[in-house]
Specification:
Glucose Oxidase, domain 1, 39 strands, 22 helices, serine protease, Rossmann fold, Subtilisin-like protease, eight-stranded mixed β-sheet
């Protein structure tokens, strides 16, 4: 980028980070939820607009400043997925607000983190007349809203050739800003907005720490994450796509005929709840069909979770909300975005590999993976180099932190770097800056055999923990250890897949073990998708600058695959509710890999339901599921009552008042009509009865017979055992009786499944629900 452009960006970044008030260090951002039915009616009636109404609360709680009115503290005014506003307040002012009639909650802003040329083919998407693309028209007529780091509109993945105009219901805008104007949108990228007020208010007031970081004060993506996720969900076809020659093929999003709307809510310092809520508020009002959020944090109570709160109203308005499960695996109960009204997605592997072997001086060959350009690697990495490890004698040098390496000791050598603390690509830059000729990234025990790869600035490869142990043992066994990296290009079909990624967050849900999370898994490891044209992968110079694609891993990459599938289903079945869409995706999921064997977990062992939910997504079956489990918004409220949520906690989530005593009296024996079956036994309980209702969306005059595999130590009976349907859209209910005298030895959970299999000549539909039973000790 030219120097003038850099100066403009840095200037804009300084403006972005200017403190909102001179005394900003004493203020912080709070999100205020209002309850207009409890003491706020007079304010609503007196206010000329909702903005005035919100400002009236600040007038009563914020100390006046001579030159500024209290309303100047207002950052956002929400009114679609949330009733309330975001403002900068001192602690005392926040306390004063909490005491006002009509205020439901006042909580501090929360920072969240950002959690393909081949993956669409791996999912079975092709040009078959009976396939998901043909049945859905490639997702035409649907709009996928992506909340992320923005978009790079010039990417060929957002080319609008052959695209129809935006649907007439679309009311969004193409918001201008730095290096972005209204002409950057088209018939594919139909809208773009950005939200920076929460970020500006929360970031430290000293901008000198960040002037070296490039950022656009506009919807333009300076980081790549948003461009990558948006193109994964709904990118156009791009022939000859690759990452510097690796993974070459035709790139397509899962729903290549769908429209994209980008909502930039994430910046270099993360994603703040106030900005996320503003983006969701606009997206639902703009007319999106699917909201894709590849961001989140650790699990927190639903009534404190802005994504859960915002997505409740979005779902009630008919928008399917798809969220990443988080990258905190393999820890148990680490799954985030666990609200039952969202579709929560874990990450799985592909059967594509990028081998880069390490040939040691003693003849041993260690398996590794890399996406370093092959033509360059043959020249630079094709000879033996001396191996060095921890040359600085410090923990920092073991992890190759910048400035920690002894330049004299690493010059011209192959440096071994432990994985962790800093980014994988950052370590390669540190080695190159110190004069190293090549790098081996070594997994530590916590990473096991996980193989997320990167494009590096020098010949490099990533090896698993077992290989790392052998590598370090070899280095210590000889006075002059040597090795060379042998790059093997791209290999497809040789690895067993899908398998659950080691980093993918696991259940059971902390806040609600009676709903199984994650819901499904989807491709999320080494995914190739669009990338900003001025950035190479990981910000590389030289040839990498011209790359329009890059490779990333995470549940962030898995979620947009499912967002694309949701768009295909919405296109094929526009009248379906978000719950029906989720049900179709879940009950059609695969529980075996491409070799017909059980899906594996991480680097060994069979994946359980807490790792993969209902299984790995299957788009072809999802657009024609046979039966679906539907849920009305009011059912979620009843479900929250059964969990013991208070009146005010439920209001914070649903924005509706409820008398749980009356609701539970009216709905005795209620159980949420979820596509999976989860039972959490507490306080010595040994039995449970669950009710489920399915809707026929397959063929009329059809019948289904139940098949059950009960979890070990658990007895399950289903009544009736056969469901018959005369018409399309007809509903039938059944009961599931679960008896568990005692938990299995040394275990606190068990799993099984329930399947409704279509009978007769049209018996193509198999509707599967996983069963999870947990014993909770309180």
């Amino acid at each position: 980028m030219e120097a003038v452009g850099v100066l403009m960006i840095c200037r804009s970044l300084l403006l972005l980070l200017l403190p909102v008030l001179a005394a900003a260090e004493t203020l912080q951002t709070y999100i205020v939820q209002l309850h207009p039915h409890e003491g706020g009616r007079e304010a609503v009636a007196a206010a000329e607009s909702r903005l005035d109404w919100h400002g009236s609360f600040l007038e009563r709680s914020v100390s006046w400043e001579q030159e500024r009115r209290p309303s100047s503290r207002l950052l956002y005014s929400y009114h679609t997925v949330f009733d309330g506003f975001a403002a900068q307040l001192a602690d005392a002012e926040a306390a004063a607000l909490r005491a006002l009639p009509g205020v439901a909650s006042v909580r501090a802003d929360r920072r969240l983190e950002l959690h393909t040329t081949y993956s669409y083919r791996f999912l079975g998407l092709n040009f078959c007349p009976a396939g998901a693309w043909a049945r859905s028209g490639y997702g035409r007529g649907t709009i996928v809203g992506v909340l992320d780091t923005g978009v790079w509109p010039e990417s060929p993945s957002f080319d609008d050739r052959g695209m129809p105009p935006a649907p007439v219901r679309w009311t969004g805008v193409c918001q201008g800003g730095e290096h972005f104007n209204t002409s950057n949108c088209n018939r594919k990228l139909i809208g773009a907005r950005f939200y920076s007020k929460g970020h500006r208010a929360n970031y430290p007031t000293n901008p000198s720490e960040a002037v070296s970081l490039l950022e656009y004060v506009s919807p333009r993506d300076a980081h790549g994450h948003g461009t990558h996720t948006a193109s994964t969900a709904a990118g156009a076809a791009v022939a000859g796509a690759s990452v510097l020659g690796a993974g070459a093929g035709e790139a397509r999003g899962v729903a290549p005929g769908a429209h994209v709307a980008a909502y930039k809510v994430c910046w270099f310092n993360g994603c703040y709840s106030s900005d996320i809520l503003a983006g969701m508020d606009d997206a639902v009002r703009d007319g999106v069909d699917v909201l894709s959020l590849s961001l989140g944090g650790f699990p927190i109570p639903l009534f404190e979770d802005s994504i859960a709160i915002g997505s409740f109203r979005a779902t009630a308005r008919g928008v399917s909300v798809v969220c990443a499960a988080g990258n905190n695996g393999p820890a148990r109960s680490s799954v985030a975005n666990e609200a039952p009204w969202v579709l929560t997605v874990g990450a799985a592997t592909l059967d594509r590999r990028f081998p880069a072997y390490v040939r040691l001086g003693n003849g041993r060959v260690l398996y590794g993976e890399s996406m370093y350009p092959v033509k360059t690697s043959l020249k630079k990495g094709g000879k033996d180099l001396e191996l060095v490890y921890a040359v600085g004698g410090t923990r920092e040098s073991e992890y190759c932190l910048k400035g920690s390496l002894d330049k004299a000791a690493v010059a011209g050598k192959m440096v071994v770097c432990n994985r962790g603390i800093t980014g994988r690509a950052d370590k390669g830059e540190a080695v190159k800056e110190a004069g190293g000729a090549a790098m081996i990234l070594a997994n530590t025990e916590v990473n096991r055999q996980e193989d997320s790869i990167d494009v590096h600035v020098l010949p490099a490869t990533l090896v698993g923990y077992r290989e790392a142990v052998e590598l370090k043992k070899y280095i210590s066994s000889t006075p002059r250890p040597v090795a060379r990296i042998v790059f093997g290009g791209t290999r497809i079909g040789q690895a067993r897949a899908p398998a659950v990624a080691l980093f993918s967050a696991r259940g059971p849900s902390l806040t609600n073990p009676s709903v199984l999370k994650p819901d499904v898994i989807a491709p999320g490891v080494n995914i190739i998708a669009a990338w900003p044209g001025n950035l190479g992968p990981s910000g590389l110079e030289g040839d990498a600058r011209r790359s329009n694609f890059s490779v990333l891993s995470g549940t962030s990459m898995a979620a947009p695959h499912v967002s694309g599938i949701a768009a295909l289903i919405r296109s094929a079945h526009p009248s379906w509710s978000p719950a029906m869409v989720r049900s179709a995706i879940m009950t059609s999921a695969d529980i075996t890999d491409r070799r017909g064997k059980a899906i594996m977990d991480g680097d060994g062992g069979r994946a359980d339901v807490f790792a993969m939910g209902a299984g790995h997504v299957n788009p072809a079956r999802a657009v024609d599921p046979g039966l679906v489990y539907d849920i009305q918004p009011g059912d979620y409220v009843t479900h929250l009552c059964t969990l013991g949520y208070t009146h005010m906690e439920i209001f914070k989530i649903s924005h509706t008042g409820v008398n749980c005593s009356a609701v539970l009296q009216k709905n005795r024996g209620f159980s949420l009509n979820y596509p999976s079956i989860a039972v959490a036994f507490k306080n010595g309980a040994k039995s449970a009865v669950l009710q489920r209702t399915v809707t026929n969306v397959g063929t009329p005059n059809s019948a289904y017979t139940v098949q059950v595999a009960a979890p070990p130590g658990v007895k399950i009976s289903v009544a009736p055992t056969t469901l018959s349907f005369v018409e399309f859209g007809e509903q039938r209910s059944f009961r599931v009786n679960v008896e568990a005298p005692s938990p299995p030895a040394a275990k606190d959970s068990a799993e099984g499944y329930l399947v409704w299999k279509q009978s007769g000549g049209e018996g193509k539909h198999v509707v599967r629900s996983p069963i999870a039973v947990t014993w909770v000790v309180e």
